[in-house]
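Researcher: Quick test of sequence recovery. Tokens follow.
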């Protein structure tokens, strides 16, 4: 298959049709693409809405769009036109999976819902992402990360502390996590299909993705009947496990068990605190967490972050600096793990993007290229599907397909 040329990774040879926009669905697609799958992104005629999520933009291309869609090939298709649906069905003949994150009922109205497509493509893995899932009383609600963070409990445990306004996590964690869960679901269903030849529907949501982040807090609530609240950077089960201010910045301390607690005290020259009954064991430190933080705070403010991190590393205490995103991009470990990589974009030129967070010893994945221009690969994809040049010209002329020349 022409579109698979040059692709590496454990999923090389897999073809995915992505009918997804904004973030959750595209995250699923980019994970699969980085692991070697050929992902064909099918966009509406005016493109994924993320193309208009600006600023920032580079050479007129949305930075957000380029981040979420690198490594994919793109075709722009009018699915409201029966001829557009016919094109999609032709593309599905060679596909292993379909990803969609339209609002409930949209795919059915277009005639490409799961129950319809499974009759024609019984081996297809059909993945749906939505705000709340395709079943249940909220199935028809639109979903956004902010709403999902609020309803899943995340905002109730995020923030500086009791009595402060509810706060969302900085990144859109339910969007991103839903995309990762969807990729996991697609691969599980694909594994089943390889054994049995049968496809199936995969269904996950932002709401459920948010709930998965409450494992510790849910454990506490289920055991005690008390819903935990926000604790700043502190941990609901271990102490000290939080950020401390230094002379010139902030560092995080992960003394999350008794061994590391004693190592911490030795590293900071405060062994006497081991004899303080308020801090003897983890349950004591949790009961007196604010007093513990107040006791440690002036110690850490006495020296620079670099000085403390050197001492803590020498003492075997888990710790690290609080980096901003630019500093993270420059971090030697991020670079060594290829989490910041470069690709060549047809308009922007050489540009940076994030890399694949899963490493494989025998079948390494990678970012296979930049995000597509709107309709950049329309003609090539249609030709691979068996359309003649004249037929493609006709589809473009009738406004069923859009193409862009790089």
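Model:
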């Amino acid at each position: 298959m022409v579109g698979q040329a040059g692709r590496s990774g454990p999923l090389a040879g897999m073809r995915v049709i992505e009918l997804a926009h904004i973030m959750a669905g595209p995250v699923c697609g980019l994970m699969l693409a980085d692991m070697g799958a050929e992902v064909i992104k099918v966009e509406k005629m005016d493109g994924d809405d993320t193309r208009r999520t600006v600023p920032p933009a580079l050479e007129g291309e949305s930075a957000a769009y380029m981040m979420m869609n690198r490594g994919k090939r793109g075709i722009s298709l009018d699915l409201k036109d029966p001829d557009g649906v016919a094109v999609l069905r032709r593309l599905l003949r060679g596909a292993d999976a379909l990803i969609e994150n339209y609002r409930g009922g949209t795919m059915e109205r277009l005639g490409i819902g799961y129950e319809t497509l499974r009759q024609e493509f019984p081996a297809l893995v059909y993945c749906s992402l939505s705000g709340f899932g395709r079943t249940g009383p909220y199935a028809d609600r639109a979903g956004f990360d902010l709403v999902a963070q609020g309803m899943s409990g995340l905002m109730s445990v995020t923030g500086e502390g009791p009595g402060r306004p509810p706060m969302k996590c900085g990144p859109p964690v339910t969007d991103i996590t839903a995309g990762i869960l969807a990729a996991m679901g697609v691969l599980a269903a694909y594994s089943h299909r390889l054994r049995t030849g049968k496809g199936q529907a995969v269904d996950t949501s932002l709401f459920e993705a948010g709930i998965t982040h409450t494992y510790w807090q849910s454990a506490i609530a289920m055991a005690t009947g008390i819903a935990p609240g926000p604790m700043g950077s502190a941990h609901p089960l271990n102490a000290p496990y939080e950020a401390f201010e230094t002379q010139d910045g902030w560092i995080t301390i992960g003394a999350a068990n008794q061994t590391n607690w004693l190592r911490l005290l030795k590293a900071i020259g405060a062994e006497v605190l081991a004899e303080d009954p308020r801090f003897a064991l983890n349950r004591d430190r949790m009961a007196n967490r604010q007093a513990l933080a107040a006791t440690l705070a002036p110690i850490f403010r006495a020296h620079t972050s670099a000085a403390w991190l050197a001492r803590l590393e020498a003492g075997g205490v888990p710790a690290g600096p609080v980096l901003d995103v630019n500093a993270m991009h420059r971090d030697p470990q991020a670079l060594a793990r290829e989490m910041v990589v470069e690709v060549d974009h047809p308009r922007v030129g050489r540009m940076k993007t994030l890399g694949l967070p899963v490493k494989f010893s025998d079948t390494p994945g990678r970012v296979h290229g930049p995000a597509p221009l709107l309709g950049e690969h329309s003609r090539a994809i249609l030709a691979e599907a068996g359309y003649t040049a004249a037929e493609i010209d006709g589809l473009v002329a009738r406004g069923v397909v859009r193409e862009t020349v790089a």
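The first strand starts at residue 15 and ends at 19.
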